[in-house]
């Protein structure tokens, strides 16, 4: 490959234009050859070629590519080159290749802050939080370098996931001593780590707050039932240039619902429209859920109708809203549309629709749901069977109720606590069901 350098420059231009292409298919055929050495004799040129190849690497490369690049570094005599090693470490990005990254790290005779930070980040990225904390501790003791804000943020997240209060406090102390307490990534991680009151102190001390920082605080107070504080923080957020994301909106609407502050939810809706925030489908789902839970079914329906491409969440959110407000006929109609379009309910959704059919005493619709449950293999779930029994009983179809009851594998446990609780249908049906239940109990005892 006499024109290897030219080929490499061509690859660099090509990968810039087409990032999604798999680099290994065209960028370095030399890696697939039997010759372990690059066809470049000059060491300086060879090192430059290796640097270019490592910098060109894309994230979806197979592990064999990483190993061969590593081999090229070794056979070229650059195994002690810290710069090349630091380029190699991030290439082992997949969870099954972290062990190779650790072997490379352990064999490095010299390590700088980039080396240590890369390993800490690798561990936290793949959920090896304990290893990340051990590596960070060794970093602080054995290196003259200083971790950057991204490394510190990942270490704090590791402490959060482990529930390591003492470790987190020590890392926080280190953050303050090294002057990273005002860095937005570190501050956001610390806010997420501490309890809500301690987090508020850190939050108030941050000069720059990101959307993630605001989200953590607003959602944190909403989850703790401190709805008033969530809304107060949102008012403060409105005075900044930070736009609320879907998580902030969700938390605020939860807070408004908890306070029964429907007007507040409408104000948030208007604010989103006024600020020009893109109304993606997830935001619409949140608003539909809020309006229907608050009894504003018509408002929820209008939002549902503006969704151009409705997914399963769209349909189930609107259907649940109808059922919560006893719009049973509309709920059953939505189910029919979902089934026609090929959307699949889970067992809970199917059970809820059967409850609506029972309330309407809509036997034909109930039979359709029963057929659907058989078709998608939901009929074997106990709560679906219980809902079927209730639906048939309330629709005065005792024969079908008994058939479903008899088909229950463990009806003496599951069904017997359910059937006598039937409060629908005529007295004759209920009495017959109760006699069936009592007989099943008697047979079990003898």
UniProtKB/TrEMBL annotation:
The PPR repeat ranges on this chain: 210-244, 311-345
Gene Ontology molecular function terms on file: RNA binding
Pfam families: PPR, PPR_2
Record InterPro entries: PPR_At4g14850-like_plant, PPR_rpt, TPR-like_helical_dom_sf
Coiled coil: none
UniProt keyword annotations, A-Z: Repeat
Taxonomic source organism: Prunus armeniaca
Gene3D superfamilies: Tetratricopeptide repeat domain
Source organism, top-level taxon: Eukaryota
Name of the protein described by the UniProt record: Pentatricopeptide repeat-containing protein
Biological process (GO), any one: RNA modification
């Amino acid at each position: 490959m006499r024109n290897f350098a030219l080929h490499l420059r061509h690859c660099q231009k090509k990968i810039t234009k087409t990032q999604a292409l798999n680099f290994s298919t065209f960028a370095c055929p030399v890696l697939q050859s039997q010759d372990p050495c690059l066809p470049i004799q000059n060491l300086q040129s060879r090192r430059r070629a290796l640097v270019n190849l490592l910098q060109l690497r894309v994230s979806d490369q197979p592990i064999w590519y990483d190993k061969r690049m590593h081999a090229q570094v070794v056979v070229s005599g650059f195994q002690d080159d810290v710069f090349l090693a630091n380029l190699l470490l991030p290439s082992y990005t997949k969870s099954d290749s972290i062990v190779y990254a650790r072997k490379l790290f352990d064999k490095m005779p010299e390590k700088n802050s980039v080396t240590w930070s890369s390993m800490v980040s690798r561990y936290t990225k793949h959920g090896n939080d304990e290893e990340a904390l051990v590596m960070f501790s060794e970093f602080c003791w054995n290196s003259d370098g200083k971790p950057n804000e991204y490394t510190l943020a990942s270490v704090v997240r590791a402490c959060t996931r482990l529930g390591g209060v003492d470790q987190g406090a020590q890392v926080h102390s280190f953050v303050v001593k090294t002057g990273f307490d005002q860095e937005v990534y570190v501050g956001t991680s610390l806010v997420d780590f501490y309890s809500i009151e301690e987090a508020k102190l850190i939050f108030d001390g941050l000069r720059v707050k990101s959307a993630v920082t605001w989200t953590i605080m607003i959602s944190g107070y909403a989850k703790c039932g401190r709805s008033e504080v969530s809304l107060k923080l949102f008012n403060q957020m409105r005075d900044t240039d930070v736009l609320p994301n879907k998580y902030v909106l969700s938390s605020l609407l939860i807070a408004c619902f908890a306070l029964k502050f429907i007007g507040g939810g409408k104000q948030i809706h208007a604010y989103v429209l006024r600020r020009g925030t893109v109304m993606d489908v997830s935001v619409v789902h949140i608003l539909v859920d809020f309006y229907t839970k608050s009894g504003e079914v018509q408002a929820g329906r209008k939002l549902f109708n503006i969704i151009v491409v409705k997914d399963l969440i769209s349909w189930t959110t609107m259907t649940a809203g109808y059922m919560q407000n006893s719009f049973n006929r509309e709920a059953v109609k939505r189910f029919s549309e979902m089934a026609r379009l090929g959307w699949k309910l889970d067992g809970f959704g199917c059970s809820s629709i059967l409850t609506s059919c029972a309330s309407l005493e809509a036997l034909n619709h109930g039979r359709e749901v029963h057929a659907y449950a058989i078709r998608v293999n939901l009929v074997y779930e106990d709560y679906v069977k219980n809902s079927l029994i209730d639906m048939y009983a309330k629709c005065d179809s005792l024969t079908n109720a008994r058939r479903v009851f008899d088909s229950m594998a463990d009806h003496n446990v599951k069904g017997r606590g359910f059937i006598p609780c039937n409060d629908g249908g005529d007295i004759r049906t209920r009495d017959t069901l109760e006699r069936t239940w009592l007989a099943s109990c008697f047979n079990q005892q003898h």
